[in-house]
Design brief:
heterotrimer; A alpha/beta; B alpha+beta; C mainly alpha; B: alpha+beta; Alpha-Beta Plaits; 5 helices; 6 strands; C: mainly alpha; 12 helices
Amino acid sequence: MFEKMIDKSMAKSPWIFHINAGSCNGCDIELVSVLTPRYDAERLGFRLTGTPRQADIVVVSGPVTLQSRDRLIRTLEQVPQPRVVVSLGSCPRSGNVFKGSYAIDGPLEKWTHVDVSVAGCTPKPEAIVAALAQATQILEQKRKEMRK
Amino acid sequence: MLPYVTKALSNLFKKPSTEAFPAGEPPKAAPHYRGRLHYDPTLCINCGMCMRVCAPQAITREIVKLENGDQQITFTYDMTSCTFCNTCSDFCSKKAITLTEDYMIVGTKPEDFLVSGTFIKKAPPPKPKLTPEQIAEMKEKAEAAKAAKAAAGGVAPAAPAGEKPKFTPEQIAEMKAAAEAKKAAAAKQEG
Amino acid sequence: MNILLYNLFYLLVFPGLLFCILMGVLLSGLDRILVARMQRRVGPPLLQNWYDFLKCMGKETIIPRHARRTVYLFAPVVGFGALITISLFLPVLNGKAAFSGNSDLVVILYLLTLVSVCGMVGASASGSPFAGVGLSREMVAMISYELPFVLVMLSVSLKTVALNPMGAPLTFSLTEIWNYQAAHGPLICHWSLIPAALAMLFVIPCEVGMHPFDVAEAETEICEGMLAEYSGKPLAVYKLTHMVKMYVMCALFYVLFLGGLSTGMAAVDVVIFVLVCALLTFLTMSLPHAVCARFKVEQVFQFYWTWVAALALVSLVLVFFGL
């Protein structure tokens, strides 16, 4: 019964950790605005954590630059299971306008499995909320699979 | 400090200013919002202008030759690559590309982010094919015509192209007078 | 046999584990909702912190390579145990506590310190530089609030002994303090102790580590500070400790300054107690959280050693001269 309660609360308290992998700061601002009174993601249990060790959902923004690549991989490794990776904006999935640059070593899928993506340059906060809500469902599924 | 405290206390009794979104319908985007791209293949003429102006190279074109000589052309717009700058729409002479107000571009698979359209470009109508007998008949006819002309008295063929048209002396004088009048007018203006 | 059963009941159910967790979850949930409403947000559900706790229980527990395994895992448990022990000393209902003696206040003071020290020990065992910074900050915060806290306790004990016929120089027994209040009215109604009550109100958020004074757990500056390396079950215990600490501090204020009130019916008393705890949570934790930005470390120190300590000292001097 306790395990079932844990399963249920998995989707109710997702903590977000945000990694900036060379983003232009546009998506980062939109992610923070998700927590403002207008969109208030906290009512769904979201909370921004300061350390990857406590995170459930890792939000990555930016095309993966050479400088940030090793740090990104190291940070992703520190997130305990079950975890969900969300790519924010167009950059992590494709490189966007930075595509083909010598400083880019993307896309993000080359380095980790991306569960949910939001496209947009930058996405609207509503789209981010929808993506995060989808990520919580995946989180619950992963927890159930982990238990088996 | 005090104004903040009073503001906080008065907020306690006000309705929250939060959107109800994940519960209900997503709110409408602002007018002229540039969201998910819409492509109408029936209007497209395959000029490729959108591909040329796209900075993040989000547009790909695939041309498949069909058996009957037609071309099946597929344009694919990758939304995870798009910057939503609207340049492709601006440059599209047939207005086949528009950016809609749908901003909810969320998905788990790459296919969720692709917008594509296919149309078939008809090949130009083929030249009518002639049987060898017909060709031989036509050749015979042409030769017969030549022979008939030669027999008629060897009239020279039509004047070769590029030769100057011939004017009568009156026409030449007229043109000269007009040119002089022009020169005079120009001189007057300069003076 | 009966005594053993009663003790088990005390320990596990009424003032002990279950009641503490229940009150901690409710009060911290209330705090989050109130803060959200003051910022015109909807806020999380009331049981959000309970969900957080459950979720942390279900996560993978990572032990960093540089960590001292045993200390790292057991420090949070020891801290939580110390906190539950405090609740057994608090006579929240009709002046009866599970444990009581002559020096309850001193024990509580040390146990509260033990809770913070356990946090620090766990942080230092995790081997993270961020935890190190958080640890040093927590130490500064502890030094800041301990002085006014001790002064408040001294003035309360001096006041209750001033008219005490027993003739002891000081009393640190919470039961005696409760009895004094039952006879003379709650201590907050004695004007000489109002500054001390104010000082105590300021001590509560810093002791709990709530927002304007949470220098040790600054999320954005030092990656959650002391909890930087914690994940999974130890983190869940830390979060629970944090919640229960809110309840324990509110209950301590209730016992020290609002005790002695009794309607005769236990159920009504409990309801009043819960309401007072909720009001204290709003006043001392939610309101500063919604209004203030986080203080710097030296600002916390300065604030507590000047203003708050001065308030407590005024009370002590007034009480000393028998007012």
